[in-house]
Amino acid sequence: MKTSRVIGGAAALIVAFAARAEDCGKLTAMKLSHGTVTSAEQALTEGTTKIAYCRVRVTSKPTRDSDIRIELWIPLEPEWNGKFEQVGNGGFAGAITLRQNGARTGVGVCRRGYRRRSSVRRQYRRQWALNHEEKIKDYGWRAISETTLASKRIIQQFKSKTAAKAYFVGCSDGGREALMMAQRFPRYFDGIVAGAPANAMSRLLTQRRGAQRSAQPVDGHLSSAKLGLLQASVLKSCGNGARYLKDPRQCQPDLPSLKCMGAETDTCLTDAQIATAQLIYQEQKDPLRGAALYGVLPGPKPSKAAGTLGSRGRTMVENPRALASLGIIWRIW
Question: Using CA atoms, how far apart are residues 174 and 93, in angstroms rounded to an integer?
Answer without folding.
Answer: 9
